[in-house]
Amino acid sequence: MIRHLLSGADLDAATATLILDTAAEMATVAGREVKKLPALRGRTVVNLFYEDSTRTRISFEAAAKRLSADVINFSAKGSSVTKGESLKDTALTLQAMGADAVVVRHPASGAPHRLADWVDGSVVNAGDGTHEHPTQALLDAYTMRARLGRLAGLHVAVVGDVLHSRVARSNVLLLSTLGAKVTLVGPPTLIPVDIAQALAPGIDVSYDLDAVLPNVDVVMMLRVQRERMTDSYFPSAREYARRYGLDAPRMRRLPEHAIVMHPGPMNRGMEITPEVADSPRSTIVEQVANGVSVRMAVLYLLLGGNNL
Ligand code: NCD
């Protein structure tokens, strides 16, 4: 088993499949009255969040607690980080406390990789800047497999603000490893030149959402990340929604069996309409639920847990 999970590229097909299969076993715990396993009793998991998060932080906390680990939640607000303490000094503090795993979210791309050099425990990247978010890709893959029965041969459209999306990058890497075909769709300003070739071979790019929709099994909508935008990438929110937003008429272009995904948080009315987000094709709530099982599997396997 790998020691850290920093990138979608850390996972070969066998390891990724082991995580998904273990997550399926973990999911049975969620259905029980007592939602707890003793597997990580006595181990310490630190959630180190330097950037806002709702789903991911709660999900990792629930996952660690369901495995009986001790959980320490650290958020940059209210810590010595606001006094200018460096990531390295924070890492040394965690090290001194004996953290077995550090789950880190950070606005700087690459921060989890640096942290992995400074601590003895396992580091899990919970989102670094615009770079990667591998557990999101795993929970997305888990959701696709649960709904559609397989990953190999699926055609997945990843739509919208690819430029700022760590979710897109990790998904492209993992889905390619697992044999799915990915098409990136969005305005040319939000799809970095050469991204397709840089990430994995066989990735397509399209600027025409309507043309792509009839040919996909999965459409994954991305949030337009205004907080990371330093420039004007499209004329207006209305114009963006008109060309790249998923509304009900557009959703009808999808094949009957196709599903609609979104990692959250959504800009309802921008990249996705409420009607689509709340439709039976949407897996958005399932993705959140599956996230806990997938993160349980990741923590369990990285920490070499026992007593499953
Ligand atoms: C994403 C993130 O933070 O990278 N959300 C998530 O983890 N569920 C996507 C986003 O912020 O748009």
Automatic annotation (TrEMBL):
Keywords: Pyrimidine biosynthesis, Transferase. It is an enzyme of class 2 (transferase). SUPFAM superfamilies: Aspartate/ornithine carbamoyltransferase. Pathway: Pyrimidine metabolism; UMP biosynthesis via de novo pathway; (S)-dihydroorotate from bicarbonate: step 2/3. Residues 3-145 form the Aspartate/ornithine carbamoyltransferase carbamoyl-P binding domain. Its EC number is 2.1.3.2. GO terms for cellular component: cytosol. Carbamoyl phosphate binds at residues 55-56, 105, 133, 136, 264-265. InterPro entries: Asp/Orn_carbamoyltranf_P-bd, Asp/Orn_carbamoylTrfase, Asp/Orn_carbamoylTrfase_sf, Asp_carbamoyltransf, Asp_carbamoyltransf_Asp/Orn-bd. Residues 153-302 form the Aspartate/ornithine carbamoyltransferase Asp/Orn-binding domain. Gene3D superfamilies: Aspartate/ornithine carbamoyltransferase (3.40.50.1370). Heterododecamer (2C3:3R2) of six catalytic PyrB chains organized as two trimers (C3), and six regulatory PyrI chains organized as three dimers (R2). PANTHER family: ASPARTATE CARBAMOYLTRANSFERASE, ORNITHINE CARBAMOYLTRANSFERASE, MITOCHONDRIAL. Belongs to the aspartate/ornithine carbamoyltransferase superfamily. ATCase family. This is Aspartate carbamoyltransferase. It comes from Micromonospora haikouensis.
